[in-house]
Amino acid sequence: MTSAPWNTLGPLTVDNALPAVLCEELLRHFEHSTQRPRSYQGVVDEALRKCEYVEVPEHLAALVTAAVTPHIDTFFGVESYPVPGQPTLIYRYGVGAGFVTHHDEVTAVELERAATNGQPVIGGDLTTVLFLSGPDEYDGGALYFEQPPLDLRPAKGALVAFPATRDFMHGVRPITAGARYTFLSRRFVKSSVLSAA
Ligand SMILES: O=C(O)CCC(=O)C(=O)O
Ligand SMILES: [Fe+2]
């Protein structure tokens, strides 16, 4: 039971949220797809974010949704659902910068640049990250939060979820060896005041 508002809770971490076979299928999809450099605020700059992405087909995204929704709804005390029509992405971070500290709110400049740069814009109330790599597969690369300070290098198949707001500043520490794969989607909270803002 929780009485705190959902947008003050998190990050939630759940080990073994995704079965190993689904992690493998998502990784196979990544390897067989066209990989593109991912932007930050609509600009590709490897000093701020060194990352490639592919989009996930609907049938695979639906399997992830089914696996994670009960964990997320129970923890945040809400009903949530993937943002309709919005792509979900797989990210690969090789050796390099990781991803600088940021929040997950969509900004006006990102939207403006998306009109011409071909980059997907993914916005919503909650961010959902699934780890498709275990900590033995890369060095560095922690998903970190600033306040309170927290560094996460969870097991393969783990879920991390948190409000996509400016209160949850986070980033990915530089990767110093190996490669780190994550699945990224955003969700709306039903009847959320924030989702209408
Ligand atoms: O890949 C990750 O661990 C986090 C990525 C992230 O923060 C984002 O896409 O906004
Ligand atoms: Fe983020």
TrEMBL record:
Single annotated GO MF: oxidoreductase activity, acting on paired donors, with incorporation or reduction of molecular oxygen
A Pfam family hit: 2OG-FeII_Oxy_3
Statement: the UniProt record of this protein carries the keyword S-adenosyl-L-methionine: no
Cofactor(s) annotated in UniProt: L-ascorbate
Fe2OG dioxygenase domain location: 84-190
UniProtKB keywords: Dioxygenase, Iron, Metal-binding, Oxidoreductase, Vitamin C
The name this protein goes by in its record: Fe2OG dioxygenase domain-containing protein
Lineage per the UniProt record: Bacteria, Bacillati, Actinomycetota, Actinomycetes, Kitasatosporales
